[in-house]
Structures are given as C-alpha cells and as structure tokens.
Amino acid sequence: MINVLFADDHEMVRIGVAAYLSAQQDIDVIAEADDGGEAVELALDLRPDIILMDLVMEEMDGIEATTKIIEQWPEAKIIIVTSFLDDEKVYPALEAGATSYMLKTSKANEIAKAIRATYQGQSILEPEVTGKIMNRMREKPVDSPHDQLTDREMEILMLVAQGKTNQEIADQLFIALKTVKVHVSNVLGKLEVQDRTQAVIYAFKNNLV
C-alpha cells in the first residue's frame, strides 16, 4: 500500500479526493490536514510514502510547509495539488522540494496515477507547468565562466591577455608577485583552462579584450 497524507483546507475537496484514493487497492490515505502546520507535524510523525499538498492554506501555506518538511526529511515525496499556475506559485514550490505538480482540475484517476509514479521515483508535472519551466529556461541567461571573476581577477586577465608577465602585472598594480600568482591561478580555475595561453584565447573568443 502507498500511504498518503493529504493536506488541503477545503474540506469538501479533501474528503472527496481522499475517498476516491482510499478506494484504490494500492493507496491508503492515512491522515488529513487542513493547514500547513498540521501537515508538517503529521508528515514528520507518520512519514507517509506520499504527501499531497495544497498551496494556499490559511495558517501556513503549502510552500512553507513543503520547505519545513524537506529541511527535516529530505527524502519526502511531495505532490503539489493546486488550482494555481502562477509563476510565483509554481517555481517556489518546486524549488522548495516538491516532487510533482498537479492541478485540481485533473481527474481523480490522474492524481492516483501521479501518486503511483511519484512513489516509483518519477516526477510528474502538468503539461502547462512543463511549458512554463521550458519558457523560464529559455529566458534565463546562461552564466559564463568569466561571470565568476572578481573585478581584480578580470583586471588580471586583461593584463595577461596583453602579454604581461606576473612581475609586470605586480609592478603595474602595485601588489605583491605572490598575490598576482594567486589571482592568475584563480582565473585559470574559474575559466576552466589549463594555462595562460588558453586564458588569453578564452578572453578573445568571448570578446573580453
């Protein structure tokens, strides 16, 4: 049996979905909660196989409850079941540690399937959620290795690209030779290159000089 905890502050929704799920041969709703705080207590006490979590609840919302559960029980499998598809709801829920994201407009048998799949280690997302995530990925700029460089390290890279030696760099910047060597080493590591020559090539390829 797949033991399920269902947290939702809408009693009729909770009772209806719980009744359907408990009628399944392999699913048992062992506890219900009407707010996030109670969900956290029950989850950590009972350690159910699956937690169905509503997002909007009065005492503590589903995102905060999910965060608290995952902090103390990282292996918890939480399925968000909500009416919301807003970005400010979807991403925080997934970032908090939710495994799957379902809409309340889903048919009851689809939620049952999501429970079984999540129990088996899969992550189930509504098509609309998947689309939002893909759009978010397309919009999110990809960080370049040189974005990790500090201002001083970028300055060192520019001087290396100009062909200056460590001693010349030290003299120009009025810093110790040992400090220059440390900065150069950091630059090579952050750019993931093997030597100064490769660092110079990287700088020109990325239009840094």
UniProtKB/TrEMBL annotation:
GO terms under biological process? phosphorelay signal transduction system; regulation of DNA-templated transcription
Domain spans labelled Response regulatory: 3-119
GO MF annotations for this entry?
Answer: DNA binding
Kindly give the SMART domains that the UniProt entry links to this protein: HTH_LUXR, REC
Query: Positions modified as 4-aspartylphosphate?
Result: 54
Entry-linked Pfam families: GerE, Response_reg
Alphabetically list the UniProt keywords.
DNA-binding, Phosphoprotein, Transcription, Transcription regulation
Asked if the Swiss-Prot or TrEMBL record annotates the protein with the keyword Methyltransferase, the reply is: no
Name of the featured protein: Two component transcriptional regulator, LuxR family
